[in-house]
């Protein structure tokens, strides 16, 4: 009798102790294009404050490598790329939910030089520059936009010997900021982050609009929270943060 009562008491105490344990903090992962680093870092902090016990992990790189990681099973809840083509591939690979896909920002491709450096008069004048930095067109959307722009004016092949390719648009920005190259192609938002080290020479035309799509990924474990993050990015507060870093509305 006493044994039964003791067992019942121990079970009750165990149940109560489990109930009193703090709930495990929720986690989610956002993989986003390198050009979104500053804006999404701020968005992450604001979103975490809105959600109780949530930790948001961010992963920034060129869009194509991010997609490859997701295709290989990386646990990602939200994917934001710097071009439509990469998101199209994500949809085709069924690693994002197409119903959640939204365009959330626009950007501009610009030509920059080190602060106070020699400036090309136009794109044709790039023939007189020995080192031109650009993103690798095979993996970096900014590189694909650059290739399209230079192809439009018949310069892509002619300038091949001068190209210094970067693994992300931020690497290209660093090359120019450090004076390792004479000029380079980046997004306007990137140039704004180093306005004290680079000069914007011109906006570059001759390519598709630099449009950023976002979607909930299917490889993560927190799709519901992923959708909330997407909604937050699209909200007035989220758009205000993006505008602060130089992005415009789609």
UniProtKB/TrEMBL annotation:
It holds the Pfam family SBP_bac_11. It comes from the Bacteria. Keywords: Metal-binding, Molybdenum, Signal. One of its GO terms (molecular function) is molybdate ion binding. Molybdate binds at residues 35, 63, 142, 169, 187. Residues 1-25 form the signal peptide. GO terms for biological process: molybdate ion transport. InterPro entries: ModA, ModA/WtpA. The complex is composed of two ATP-binding proteins (ModC), two transmembrane proteins (ModB) and a solute-binding protein (ModA). Belongs to the bacterial solute-binding protein ModA family. This is Molybdate ABC transporter substrate-binding protein. The lineage of its organism: Bacteria, Pseudomonadati, Thermodesulfobacteriota, Desulfobulbia, Desulfobulbales.
């Amino acid at each position: 009798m006493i044994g039964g009562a003791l067992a019942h008491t121990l079970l009750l105490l165990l149940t109560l102790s489990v109930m009193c344990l703090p709930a495990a903090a929720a986690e989610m992962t956002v993989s986003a294009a390198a050009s979104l680093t500053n804006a999404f870092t701020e968005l992450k902090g604001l979103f975490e404050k809105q959600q109780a016990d949530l930790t948001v992990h961010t992963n920034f790189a060129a869009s194509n490598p991010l997609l490859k990681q997701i295709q290989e099973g990386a646990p990602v809840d939200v994917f934001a790329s710097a071009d439509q083509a990469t998101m199209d591939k994500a949809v085709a690979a069924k690693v994002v939910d197409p119903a959640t896909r939204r365009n959330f920002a626009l950007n501009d491709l610009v030509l920059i030089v080190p602060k106070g450096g020699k400036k090309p008069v136009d794109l044709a004048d790039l023939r007189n520059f020995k080192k031109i930095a650009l993103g690798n067109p095979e993996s970096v959307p900014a590189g694909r936009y650059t290739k399209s722009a230079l192809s439009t004016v018949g310069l892509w092949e002619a300038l091949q010997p001068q190209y210094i390719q970067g693994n992300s648009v931020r690497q290209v920005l660093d090359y120019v900021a450090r004076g390792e190259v004479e000029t380079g192609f980046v997004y306007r938002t990137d140039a704004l982050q180093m306005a004290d080290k680079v000069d914007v020479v011109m906006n570059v035309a001759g390519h598709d609009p630099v449009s950023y799509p976002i979607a909930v990924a299917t490889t993560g474990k927190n799709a519901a929270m992923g959708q909330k993050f997407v909604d937050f990015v699209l909200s007035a507060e989220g758009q205000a943060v993006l505008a602060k870093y130089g992005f415009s509305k789609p």
